[in-house]
Design a protein that fits this description.
about 425 residues, Glycosyltransferase, two-stranded antiparallel ribbon, disordered C terminus, Terpenoid_cyclase/PrenylTrfase, signal
Amino acid sequence: MAPLAPSRAALVRRAAVVCAAALVPVAATAPAAFATPAPSPKKLPAGLYGSGDPQYDGVWRQSLALLAQHTVQVKPAATAVDWLTGQQCADGAFTAYRADTAKACGASTMRDTNQTGAAVQALAALGGHGQAVDKAVHWLTSVQNDDGGWPSMPGSPSDANSTAVVIGALAAAGEDPAKVTSPKGHTPYEGLLTFRLGCAVKPAERGAFTFQLKGAAANADASAAAATGALGKGFVVPAAGKDADTPADAPDCGGKKEPTGADAAALRSAASGASAYLVKEMDAHGQHLMSAMPGAEPQPDVGNTADAVVALAAGGHGAAAAKPLAWLEKNGPAWAKQAGPAAYAQLVLAAHATGTDPRDFGGTDLVAALNATGPKPSAAAEKAVPKEKGTGSISAWWLVPVGLAAGAGIGFLLSGRRKRGQ
């Protein structure tokens, strides 16, 4: 089987999460209306970032690229923005890639909450796309599960990552997630907190989040997403600074009652517990998280480490983020060079969240490198991409068979937030 292109690295990483959790494939539970991705294009469309096949991650990588550019005051090319808006279905949803946008989305179009949530965050940040954002938010709320959360593909069980992505989208669109209720009256925050592992699990996992309730186990990717989502934040968080020293605390299981419900105190506690779990995991592995790819050799997960840094910054744990940030500066640019625009975007957003200069990130100008993966920005004070230094020795663990990801049956994993392909 042909190897998977680096463009879908992080999406397959999310697929590994599903496999590791022994998740029942969505293909067995989702409606047939969301079963078929668009075919691969023979020629990449104008305006698209990256050179890899967009079949599974086109909207995702475009959205993160545009969002990262906006965050560092780069005005994207009009063709890049037009490509993204042109991908939207009439009902407001986005899929990973529509080869023929003149053809309406039909029953076989694989609508995806993660692609839609990412597009909402990008278009809301850029401004001037209110109608598209409103339609997308309306679609997202129309497919909310009874528990208050979201799956990647409507009709399947909720998961922590998808729920966090949608919370970020709602907040970016000016909606209060606490006021968005499911048919059973549950909010997105209530749905998200169902994936939290509290005092009932072994001490090493307390505070972590699981990806899904089936086969529940501590999961770093889900924990990073949930730590950010519980605070009502999306992919972009205000710069906390490396010297912020709010401690990340694991759940106190020695008699002190944990906050219950989904009020502000409970959400802060959940985010802090997830951050404490991430810090512990990174401390144990040389200041980075490990890949959960089934069958793969133990390897660092660069993208998830970047997401963890953003999560720590979101909670004001800037001091705790400093060490993994330094690891990212050494190892992230080489990974992004192979993985593509969404990977560069993740690093830009991690730099932004920690008050680090993304134009000198371990010797690499991430902004110039990101800009070079797509159409020339309309306005950008960019420098030439310098030679990368201190790139470490991260191996290309993402080069795995596409069948692994497809077998997981998760639209976002093929299309993931957290978190990113070329």
